[in-house]
Design brief:
By secondary structure, the chain is mainly alpha-helical. Helices cover 71% and strands 0% of the residues.
């Protein structure tokens, strides 16, 4: 019985959220941000080359020299550099090319910076919902 009340409460809150004018605007903003991020990523992604092993080897050599230097300021830690070297070495040994922008993960990883936008929109919706509880005319969908 209590579970049924909880589902009714959740259904009521979802109806309240989607009855607001700001919800479709925020969803559209999120979709546009993802699309723009995708277009920027596609425009800035270099074409695939067959010499990725050489690039990874050069990257490993650069990282090895950076590990020996003293760390100054924020940046990659030595553990992160060693992890990247290990990943690159594994890719070279097992003939696995790096993730490119044309795969799903190649798109998700750079666009994951939009998580802060999702968090901001969630805070806005939550604050609006709480403020709506103290208004004179609460919405009831029973």
């Amino acid at each position: 019985m209590k579970l049924n009340r909880m589902f009714k409460l959740i259904k009521n809150e979802v109806k309240k959220i989607f009855s607001q004018k700001s919800t479709p605007i925020m969803l559209a903003l999120l979709v546009v941000a993802v699309l723009i991020g995708g277009f920027i990523l596609k425009a800035n992604t270099p074409t695939a080359t067959n010499d990725w092993k050489i690039q990874l080897t050069q990257s490993n050599q650069t990282l090895q020299t950076q590990i020996t230097l003293p760390q100054t300021g924020p940046g990659q830690t030595k553990e992160e550099m060693q992890q990247e070297i290990d990943t690159n070495t594994y890719r070279i040994d097992h003939d696995l090319p790096p993730i490119e922008g044309r795969t799903l993960w190649g798109f998700v990883i750079p666009v994951s910076a939009l998580i802060s936008l999702v968090s901001l929109l969630t805070i806005i919706v939550g604050a609006g919902s709480i403020a709506g509880e103290f208004s004179n005319e609460p919405l009831n969908y029973y």
